[in-house]
Design brief:
By secondary structure, this protein is α/β, with parallel strands linked by helices. It is 36% helix and 10% strand. The protein contains 18 helices and 15 strands. α9 (245-261) packs parallel to α11. The chain is globular and about 75 Å long. The longest helix has 18 residues, at 405-422. The chain starts with 14 loop residues before the first helix and ends in a 24-residue tail after the last helix. β4 (220-221), α9 and β5 (265-271) form a beta-alpha-beta unit. The strands form 4 sheets. The protein has a 6-stranded parallel sheet. A 5-stranded mixed sheet has the order 11-15-14-13-12, with helices on one face. This is beta-N-acetylhexosaminidase. Belongs to the glycosyl hydrolase 3 family. InterPro entries: GH, Glyco_hydro_3_AS, Glyco_hydro_3_C_sf, Glyco_hydro_3_N, Glyco_hydro_3_N_sf, NagZ_Beta-hexosaminidase. Its EC number is 3.2.1.52. Keywords: Glycosidase, Hydrolase, Signal.
Length: 577
């Protein structure tokens, strides 16, 4: 599945041609109006009997679409979140949340009432830069997730679209954005994979991760992040594979192939490139000031590499690309999503909005925002702040003509095609979770990522060692202590050679002047101010990364990684240049 390109072959697009396309009609901030429906298009349901289902996913999708009512069609482009960790039994608080969101009590009720195309599972951790739009959490452990997804699929199976499996997604990026963390194989961050620099290791690790997601009943992952880290963006940071477009592109392609080989759709995000602004779209509308040519060469290579690897979805970002459609978030930009993403870059798969409960999307009421997003070229509306209003707004626009039926049918056909493609591979069993083979794949990637930015290439420390950290990292400190002990390094509570850990959100005030070794477990920029004679980066605080770090500190492994971002005053590695 993962090796088939989701865009047609095309010659490289000349910058002059791209610029000419974008300059035409660049005035105004509204999405380009979609074509008027054909006079022969039905105003209600289909007027002719449906053809028998075809064998291929696209044919099956087209046949199913022909049988659907207006209400069915509208529901299929909605993918909200819901309150509650069970499909049918929720707490009073979760029921109240669902009532406010959608006028129903349970996630299963929401699917039934609005004939939903999908549901996103949500949650967050303390270091999560996306927590601003995570209104609740409904993930706890693998068994609970499996029971929840089983209940959600049962509810969706009773819809008119029942033959096409419900899309159940989550943001399992690994690193600081990881929804399911207990009882599964946890990969190191994307930036760690970029430091390792081996797409084959990335592909193997993501194949293991995808297998486990599929076993839990998740069939679309909102990953990998295809944003190039062109700025010191804290919201993207270690979620990116690095600052070099070509190297990041190779990593994104590996992640897509691994994930989709397991029967889970990959989603490239956040188009046209969130890493090209340091601002956070969970708070405001980031502005991309780069020229169209700079975005083409510096932001889009990982997206095109992911498409060539067969990525089934692309997420549109709440980003203002001034050179292309000034003042309009990309989520609502026909120029970016239809002219550029589909026309220039040739993407044929499903385009999904970023969370519509984020501030840049909430400038419009939920119904109007959903209509604008669909007319711009999105096929799935993610995380609307009010399901009832979004559904009613889409239905009214369809019947009133401001949402052309042809556009809605096109979107639903793409969504159903992806669903039928995903249904072709059987999901793995729950017994595949966190197996030794899967852990080995994560450990190999983490080991290849460890980078020494100052000090001898070996980076071995003489015991005893005292492990310290910035605040709130007791669990990671304990994990490294156990790994060092297992590697034969003596660890004592105090008085030893200090190995100091810093992570997401830390700055100069979190460094320790007497540390012999300082380790960056997120972006390595903080190391520029560290005085330790040895500086290391793991880019991740996962168990696999701490095990790899312990092997380096114990002299059992060579830190062969190379920093995928530039750190002022430091080389990319003292081990290889």
């Amino acid at each position: 599945m993962g090796g088939v390109s989701n865009r047609p072959w095309r010659a490289p697009v000349a910058v002059a041609a791209l610029t000419a396309l974008l300059v035409a009609g660049c005035s105004g901030g509204s999405p380009r109006p979609a074509p008027t429906p054909s006079p022969t298009a039905p105003s209600g349901g289909p007027s002719a009997p449906a053809a028998p289902p075809a064998a291929d996913p696209a044919g099956r999708a087209a046949a199913l679409v022909a049988t659907l009512s207006d209400e069915d069609l509208v529901g299929q482009v909605l993918m909200p979140y819901a309150y509650g960790d069970s499909a049918t039994k929720v707490s009073a608080g979760s029921a109240a949340g669902n009532q406010a969101l959608a006028g129903v009590d349970t996630p299963a009720d929401m699917i039934a009432k609005y004939r939903l195309g999908g549901l996103i599972l949500v949650g967050f951790s303390a270091d999560d830069p996306t927590k601003g739009n995570q209104e609740t959490t409904n993930v706890d452990n693998p068994q609970q997730v499996h029971e929840l997804t089983t209940g959600l699929r049962a509810a969706a199976g009773r819809l008119a679209t029942g033959p096409a499996p419900l899309l159940i997604g989550t943001d399992q990026e690994y690193g600081v954005v990881t929804r399911v963390t207990d009882g599964v194989t946890v990969l190191p961050s994307a930036l760690a994979a970029g430091a390792a620099g081996d797409p084959k290791l990335t592909e193997a690790a993501w194949r293991a991760a995808g297998t486990e997601l599929a076993a839990m009943g998740i069939n679309i992952d909102f990953a990998p992040v295809a944003d190039v880290l062109a700025t010191r963006s804290t919201v993207i940071g270690s979620r990116s594979y690095g600052a070099d477009p070509k190297q990041a592109a190779a990593q994104v392609g590996g992640a897509v192939r691994g994930l989709q080989a397991s029967g889970v759709a990959a989603t490239l995000k956040h188009f046209p490139g969130h890493g090209h602004s340091a601002d956070d779209s969970h708070q405001d509308l980031p502005v991309l000031t780069q020229s169209a040519a700079a975005l083409q060469s510096g932001a889009w290579p990982p997206f095109t590499a992911g498409m060539d690897a067969g990525a089934m979805a692309v997420m549109s970002g709440h980003l203002d690309a001034r050179a292309i459609d000034p003042g309009t978030p990309a989520t609502f930009s026909h120029k970016l999503l239809t002219d550029v993403l589909r026309g220039q870059l040739g993407f044929k798969g499903v385009v999904i909005t970023d969370g519509m409960n984020m501030p840049p999307a909430k400038r419009w009421a939920p119904g109007e925002a959903a209509v604008r997003a669909l007319n711009a070229g999105n096929d799935l509306i993610l995380m609307t702040p009010n399901v009832a209003q979004a559904y009613d707004g889409l239905l009214a626009a369809l019947r009133g003509g401001s949402l052309p039926r042809t556009r809605l049918v096109e979107a639903v056909t793409r969504v159903l095609t992806m669903k039928f493609q995903l249904a072709e591979l059987p999901a793995a069993q729950m017994s595949t979770l966190n197996t030794p083979a899967h852990r080995a794949a994560a450990e190999a990637l983490a080991a290849a990522a460890v980078t020494v930015l100052r000090g001898t290439c070996g980076a071995e420390v003489r015991g005893p060692v005292t492990v310290t950290s910035s605040g709130g990292r007791d669990g990671t400190r304990a994990t490294l202590t156990a790994a060092l002990t297992a590697a034969g390094v003596s660890v004592k509570p105090s008085g030893g050679t200090v190995v100091h850990l810093v992570g997401y959100g830390d700055g100069a005030e979190d460094l320790r002047a007497d540390a012999a070794v300082t380790v960056a477990m997120d972006t390595p920029y903080v190391l520029a101010g560290a005085t330790s004679p040895t500086l290391l980066a793991t880019y991740s605080s996962s168990r696999a990364s701490m095990t790899a770090l312990a092997a380096v500190l114990g002299g059992k492994a060579r830190p062969g990684g190379r920093s995928p971002v530039a750190v002022p005053g430091l080389p990319a590695s003292t081990c290889r240049t």
